[in-house]
């Protein structure tokens, strides 16, 4: 049974999971303490949505039919649940978020929507179900606060109980926890506070397959148990204070990574983060503070764990506790043994002596001084000077830890690369621009003229929930920002069959940014329609300092001509060059799902030395190539996921040509159990140098002759290979 469907453990059994895991006893609960390190932290946490966006389809909590007390005294649980239910019903009506469309024996699923919550304090007394593809979004100069009142009945029975529960509810079908058919759900820009007398509270039960987010939250667990339980895609600018466990992490459904970006876990009584079944965390610019342990794996579990540019502050026992690889059940299989991987890269520690504890042997990797800088710490297989005659291999712990890392160094590594959103008061709704032109948009006619007028006149354009048709490329200026709140409810779609999108040798994108731009484009779905072989979803040319995030494309799987299927991903085919196309661009790219499978190239990046950080990006279902890099330098891929499907077995995960200085961190190159054929390698390299693969998941135990790559990497020119598909480090020097 998938852990995302596992029955709830009792509080006693949950706390006992790790009994006997460490060679040394866990420090007592009283070791958790407040940490005053705020002067070190360069990140400003606060409201990121400062006013009410004008969106007639969103549900506003407190509006007629959803009235609240908002005083922290009266119970607002029913009003919030009613608002979430209404947002879900509106999504069913417009079908904008329903990826399944009645296929795979599911009736039409929740279409989803947005609940907007104004400033105020809202008392809750029972779990709130966050249905598939619904986002609860706070707004105001100060973030709203949801409070679980003191000694609320049901939260001190010995059994864990949620406050916010991510759920999947097919229309007319059974309710389950969110699973691999859950897309786009989220909690954004509010705070949660658990008052005393609620020891069994799990503040958020988080799960989902793609585009699910926890963003801009402060979670004060207090005497409660856990801040975040289970995980999905992106956890960004979230702080968890107190509790027994800050984050109890599992493998995201259906086995993807979870990226933890610009987060803080402080003052937990037992550990900041607990890892269960191969949680595959990608942790960047995150602080772990004031707990006996920062990160600990449950017994018998392997982990693909990656930490970069992060900080450990006043950790009493050990920063990371892992199982020794040979002790894991099934370790006689070198693929399972190799699946236990750790990378700690360019991190710092203060008041923290032991960095890594291997539980079964008691072996500890220690700092030399405090404070200290962890240049590199890995556990697992290292392949150095790969694809050459000087290739070497070694396994186990590799540590490069130095002293003298002070406050300035920690501040530098924690400084975010994510630009702040402009204040809502500066946003202009594209619907208002349409009204000023005497036009109506989102009604089935061509909306491109209105959209182009909006971005020509205003720097920040807000796109309300809806489906908008474009007959040609929407071209942004260097200072243009394009903002939506929900990528599966806010769609820009090509006019199907339009001659502007007819030439596959001269593709036009739905959205194009300029060279040198400092653009922010977030919260949108892009759909190139059906008969548009000369289209691409986006052409990104913006410079470092720009931001492309929370973006999805239409969901289409490549398939042969003679295949017909009830799955909406197979109902038509096309031939396009590009899905997401980057030419000369860079910046920060996060939480993008590129699954327009008829394109020859899922993510195609060319001719750029603009630095880029790519977080939690999923590229799936293309026929021949998922990710292609040609003439690219200075890019980091942190949590890249690719997926082949039943007919896409000829699809290569990554192709690299004439490129340099690339990092791939904690990649998952996935082949589904039903895939119909093998592929000889995941990553190919040609005429390229200084490429680092740090952490890799290529193992799957279902039909391994097809689902496991023939090799991890190959040199296209010499034919040399790295045969391992599970490793902590591969260096391709060139």
Brief rundown of the structure:
The protein is mainly β. The protein contains 7 helices and 53 strands. The model is unreliable at 1-31 (pLDDT under 50).
Summarize the structure in words.
With 734 residues, the chain is mainly beta. The chain has 7 helices and 53 strands. The strands form 3 sheets. The chain has a 24-stranded mixed sheet that branches. Strands 5, 8, 9, 11, 13, 15, 18, 21, 24, 26 and 27 form an 11-stranded mixed sheet that branches. The protein is globular, with a radius of gyration of 24 Å. It comes from Jiangella anatolica.
Low-confidence stretches: 1-31
> What's the story with the biggest beta sheet?
24 strands, mixed
Structural class: mainly beta
Rg over CA atoms, rounded to whole Å, is 24 Å
Proportion of strand residues? 35-45%
How many strand segments?
Answer: 53
Whole-number average pLDDT? Answer: 91
| Beginning-to-end CA distance, first to last residue | 44 Å
Identify the overall geometry. globular
Helix content: under 10%
Q: What's the tally of helices?
A: 7
